[in-house]
Amino acid sequence: MLTKAEKEKNAKIRKEKEASLKKRLDLHQKVTTKARVAMLRYGLIIEVVNTVQAKLAQEAGFTAICPYDYPAPHSASANGNPTTSDPRVIREMMNKVLIPLMAKVRIGHIIEAQMAEHLGVNIIDESEYAGEAKAKHILKNGFRAPF
């Protein structure tokens, strides 16, 4: 049976290990994110409609894909601005290809950005569309995924 002092010592050691691990994970995430963004800088990003096109894009040497699950007339909101892709399509593409996936979200639509980040996309594109010049951009400091 452990004494109270031993339990406190073990708890302190566990907290120190957890803090060290969290620090290492945060550093790894920052390095990985910078590498992903650098990789996209000089590459080609292609919009794909389904997983077959995503696989073809990967084989053709594209550096990233952007899911675009509907033809243009059907993917617009009432004001004519495109909406984000279906989460099922994003998840399906992520499971089929190894190249980074970039999700588009509308300006100011924080829920779309949170959904994309929760799905695990590599980068988020907050697209600017005509007619939304007055919209406020998302505050990006609360996100782990780069914009």
From TrEMBL:
Keywords: Lyase. The keyword Lyase applies. It comes from the Eukaryota. Its EC number is 4.3.3.6. This is Pyridoxal 5'-phosphate synthase subunit snz1. It comes from Coemansia linderi. It is an enzyme of class 4 (lyase). The gene is SNZ1_2.
